[in-house]
């Protein structure tokens, strides 16, 4: 089998009414106009001479045409290659820019989308889900948490939590990062509203300095919080170590890190308790297998991150959640940035390979590859 064509597809859905930042970011009043102005994604479509087509996603938080152009530029390296040779192709792509310091950022996100598409082809060629190729179905039923309860006023936050419970979730994540008093009040209110039987986590999206994170972390211990996610800057390894050594609540991070090298520093220097790489940002399945080997050698659980991705990334992440035995819970995105405008790239681009969801657990369909069936009408409508 040979690769005959590679196509990068950028999709943008403008958010019609401007919104306040639904997560913690610095200078939010200015940056929200750029960061949260649209839903966006870059897909990678790879065709073969046997009629098998694979899809992947390059995780995008800004400028989806940047990863599109990178994929198109390295396309000549891929034409004629055997798509089953994922290790060789990954090293070939990485080697193109390795000696120029591209260990993270747009270039690695572009490689990630290509790699996911190749594994989709491998699964389809062998007529098995990707999770089978990653090691098998460790979790026939995947425990999932609803992500996320966003900054939208106390009444709306409590209503969102209530909706998640009604949908059948037994775990959910709260966005914090608005300040000590506001955050503690929000966590306390949600805990009282949903009761002690619901598993809660919090995510600050790097919103604090170390001392504030320590202060808030001590309060979180009173509300049985399962983990404290990204409390500080992703590169402050000394700060992460201080938090991990000072707090009883587990510290989680890793969505902002790329490749095994960044994760290695986060584990060794930062002493984090949980890592959360994004398969469509951290190098695809090929690299995430190596990241998982690294994390397991330190007994640090590997959980998936989906975040502001499309359904393609979510489908790919489900394959990892099914295969990796230490991935004890899956981030199942339920809320869009805008409370008034749904994200069609998440809800309409492709059905997720989910057979059922009951009592907080996902059962996957036995579909080959990553299990997606792309809606071409969505691509035609939002392609740029």
From TrEMBL:
Protein name: Mandelate racemase/muconate lactonizing enzyme family protein
Domain Mandelate racemase/muconate lactonizing enzyme C-terminal as annotated: residue spans: 154-250
Keyword field contains Cell membrane: no
Keywords annotated in UniProt: Magnesium, Metal-binding
Pfam families registered for this protein in UniProt: MR_MLE_C, MR_MLE_N
Gene Ontology terms for molecular function: hydro-lyase activity; magnesium ion binding
Positions in coiled-coil regions: none
Cofactor needs: Mg(2+)
